[in-house]
Amino acid sequence: MSVRLLIDMNLSPDWVLFLQQHGWDAIHWVTVGDPHAEDSVLMDWARQNGCVVFTHDLDFGTALALTHAAGPSVIQLRGQEVFPDQVGSTLISALTQHRDALAAGALMVIDVKKCRVRLLPL
């Protein structure tokens, strides 16, 4: 199953090239939507376009929990390390391990030491 990642505004566009170099399909929100759009707009776009949202914003997980939505999948990056050279290998490992869950609908929370996955709806 293919997983396409939509990178939120709060993460560097450098993630796109990093992910592509590791075989993942990725786009940054700034290339497809309004940089000042509400999170709900980004979530709707991701759902309509079959993307997994990759973010450093905790609001996305909260929105999934409050709405009991079945998608889109969200990957939340926790902690202060938010650049590919800091946590890129952790993300690639988590993506590889949990590809099927993300394709089905999941909330993945990643920090430098661990990864937690919960299937949607929450």
Features of the shown structure:
six-stranded mixed sheet, alpha/beta, 39% helix
Model description:
Helices cover 39% and strands 22% of the residues. The chain is α/β, with parallel strands linked by helices and 122 residues long. The protein has a single domain, classed as 3-Layer(aba) Sandwich (Rossmann fold), CATH 3.40.50. Helix 1 links the parallel strand 1 and strand 2. The radius of gyration is 13 Å and the shape is globular.
Topology:
Blueprint (H helix, E strand, L loop, with lengths): L3 E4 L6 H8 L3 E4 L10 H10 L2 E5 L3 H9 L6 E4 L6 H14 L1 H6 L1 E5 L4 E5 L3
Short description:
The protein has helices at 14-21, 39-48, 59-67, 84-97, 99-104; strands at residues 4-7, 25-28, 51-55, 74-77, 106-110, 115-119.
Helical/strand content category? alpha/beta
Biggest sheet record: 6 strands, mixed
CATH third-level topology: Rossmann fold
Total domains, how many?
Answer: 1
Tell me the β content. Answer: 15-25%
CATH architecture: 3-Layer(aba) Sandwich
Adjacency order of strands in the biggest sheet: 2-1-3-4-5-6
Number of helices: 5
- What radius of gyration results from the CA coordinates? 13 Å
Regarding quaternary structure, how should these chains be classified?
single chain
Which spans have pLDDT < 50 for at least 5 consecutive residues?
Answer: none
Tell me the span between the first and last alpha carbons.
Answer: 22 Å
| Average pLDDT for all residues | 94
Overall body shape? globular
H and E string? EHEHEHEHHEE
Number of strands: 6
